[in-house]
Amino acid sequence: MCGIVGYIGREQAAPILLEGLSRLEYRGYDSAGVAVFDAQAGALAVRKAKGRLQVLSDQLHGGADLDSTVGVGHTRWATHGAPSDINSHPQVSRSGKIAVVHNGIIENYAELKGFLQSKGVPFVSETDTEVVAQLIEYFYDGDLLAAVGRVLRRIQGAYALGILCADCPDQIVAVRKDSPLILGYGEGCNFITSDVTAILRHTRSVGYMEDGELAVLTREGIRCCNHLMQPIEKEIVTVDWEMDAAEKGGYEHFMFKEIMEQPEALRRCLSPRIREGEIVFEDFSLDQDYIKNMRRIYIVACGSSYHVGMVGKYHLERLTRIPVEVALGSEFRYMDPIVDDHTLVIVISQSGETLDTMAALREARRLGGHILSIVNVVGSSIARESDQVLYTWAGPEIAVATTKAYTTQLALLSLLALWLAKRLGTVPEEDFRSMLAAFQELPDKMEEVLSRREDIQYFASRYFNHDSIFFMGRNIDYALGLEGSLKLKEISYIHSEAYASGELKHGTISLIEDGTLVVALSTYSGLFAKAMSNVVEVKARGGSVLALTVEPRKAEMAQTADGVMTIPDIHNLLLPCLGVVPLQLFAYYVALMRGCDIDKPRNLAKSVTVE
Ligand code: M6R
After folding, report:
1. For the chain, how long is the longest CA-to-CA vector?
2. pLDDT above 70: residue 28
3. What is the pLDDT confidence band of residue 510, given thresholds at 50, 70 and 90?
4. Which residues are marked as active site?
5. Distance in Å, CA 306 to ligand 1 centroid
6. Fewer CB under 10 Å: which end of the chain, C or N?
7. CATH 3.40.50.10490 residue ranges for the chain
8. Is 402 in the pocket of ligand 1 (CB under 6 A)?
9. Does residue 88's CB lie within 6 angstroms of at least one atom of ligand 1?
10. pLDDT at residue 554 is higher than 60
């Protein structure tokens, strides 16, 4: 997804912009560009290139070719117009006086483009962003802020904008609506960025722009104002993420590093919340009356976060006896959902910026739901728009394929289910105690799974050249299969589907032929016998079965399956948290053996901020 970095200071801007953009590469992009104010020429210099950032960097000799101390940079993930040099950002106005970098989508760009064309303004790109640059110039009469203000009153959609004007060489103008933009406060220099990791090397003091806000950055400071152009004071907060937490730390891929970090991430997420035999949510509380009168729970999310919700539904309904609906963020607002003020809406998102999830959140709020979000990125849009937030504290997740965010979301949602059950009185004290003990065992048991990763590597070497792999399971194992299948397909490009095992005979079984690989998930002991029957059905049709079960069931499963992956036994509530780890490793090793670009799978972005 697109990334923005802007710098104004006393050092050369271009190398800082390129380095900052390199920190955003993980978000997924197809082209990159920078614009700086060239003092000698008295004009803006814009350089853009399709492809990896390295292409641009090589063209600019690491930035040395551009002599300037102010500029903006961008990595683009195409929405309007194919990836190309011309469509890359910064987009410039016809005279070259205004340059704009933009994340988001200008929804009424066609209408505005038509208007400008009718006034004789020529367009060179297919982007919606060019409209912003051209419109600013159209309104510009020597007062940049007035022109930007007039543009903001006309554009609709989502935008984080970084704007340079050749007539104002000592400032950057920044604007935000529905797309994240962060201000960085340095010594004699200031920054804008769409993601704090891009500027952490330079400053840890940041301010999060709110919707409708505008900021003017100079070397000396940052002035902010609201949508009425009235001055506002921005709260400056200190980011405490360590720089090396955003680096690979010696691992070949971020994804592998993040898989290995999971026990630690779980400790960070869970330990402060389990104290003296109780669940303590210091960061959140719900009124007891509200809990008692809750009639329905909605879980809304996309991708892997949605899969967390699928597991969560089983846990929440079992523990609280409250009906739970799980909805895709992209579907929610179009399905006329039944939400009222007795509905708790749990919004799950790693990035906190997924546009579909955000839109669902807003719809749920409009209908009167109480919004509780489970988010990883602190200060992200979803976190800020929720009534309450539970942070997963998994640390920055860089690989496109989520791993530690998934397990921490799942652990936290499971803990929330248990907390609600306790408040509702729907869980016997003894069960509560044993479940809480399981949470405390989880990180160590996960370490055990990770220490046996060579077993999974072996299975990957046996099956990495399959064209199609199916996952099947029942109940929580079905929900787990959805995630295992997504993980595999997104990074290895192997076709994969997940099925509820019971559905096999209703159609899917026709796909099973000699050698078809089925990953049979059977961690849930209560349904082990049923899982075995499905394994037999697959074997009877010539399929190969790679099973996942708990250690005590290994021998039994090995009598029928071709291979068995295991996890230590743990309370049902936490089986999917442990069970997902062999599936993550399987996907990782398979992708590695197929030579795939693991951290940046084709066509994918880390944070999907368009519909
Ligand atoms: O940041 P979010 O959790 O809202 O992202 C949702 C999905 O885009 C994300 O989980 C996606 O499916 C991942 N690539 C899965 O690994």
Report:
1. 81
2. no
3. confident
4. 2, 606
5. 8
6. C
7. 248-449, 453-593
8. yes
9. no
10. yes
Q: Return the pLDDT at 158.
A: 83
Question: 610, 4 in Cβ contact below 8 A?
Answer: no
Residues of the chain with CATH 3.60.20.10: 3-240
Token pair, residue 228, equals 């009425």
Q: What is the structure's pLDDT at 589?
A: 97
Residue 438 CB partners (closer than 8 Å, separation 6+):
570, 571, 573, 574
Residue whose CA is closest, atom 9 of ligand 1? 303
Q: Is the dihedral of CA 40, 41, 43, 49 positive or negative?
A: negative
Instruction: Give nearest CA residue, ligand 1 atom 11.
Output: 303
CA of 71 to the centre of ligand 1 (A): 31
- The answer, yes or no, to whether any atom of ligand 1 lies below 6 A from the CB of 403, is no
Task: Choose the residue to mutate in 608, 610, 611 for probing ligand 1, maximizing ligand atoms within 8 Å of C-beta.
Answer: 608
Bridge-based pairing state of the strands 3-8 and 190-193? antiparallel
Which CATH superfamily, name and number, covers 3-240?
Answer: Aminohydrolase, N-terminal nucleophile (Ntn) domain (3.60.20.10)
CB atoms within 10 A of CB 238: 8
Helix ranges restricted to H, 464-527? 476-492
> For ligand 1, what atom is nearest to the CA of residue 606?
14
Measured between alpha carbons, how far is 399 from 167 in angstroms, rounded to an integer?
Answer: 40
What is the arithmetic mean of pLDDT over 100-124?
94
Which of 300, 310, 346, 350 for mutating ligand 1's site (highest number of atoms within 8 Å of CB)?
A: 350
Q: Within 10 A of 429 (CB to CB), how many other CB atoms are there? A: 8
Average pLDDT for the chain: 93
Q: Across residues 580-601, what is the average pLDDT?
A: 96
Tell me how far apart the alpha carbons of residues 341 and 295 are, in angstroms, rounded to a whole number. Answer: 9
**Which residues fall within 8 angstroms of residue 314, CB to CB, at 6 or more apart?**
475, 476, 479
| CA-proximal residue: ligand 1, atom 16 (nearest) | 401
* Residue nearest atom 12 of ligand 1, based on CA coordinates: 303
Which ligand 1 atom lies nearest to the CA of residue 400?
14
Beta carbon of 357 within 6 Å of any ligand 1 atom: yes
Measured from the CA of 402, which atom of ligand 1 is nearest? 16
* Ligand 1 pocket, residue 351 CB under 6 Å: yes
Which CATH code is given to the segment(s) 248-449?
Answer: 3.40.50.10490
- CATH code of the region 453-593: 3.40.50.10490
**pLDDT confidence band for 545 (50 / 70 / 90):** very high
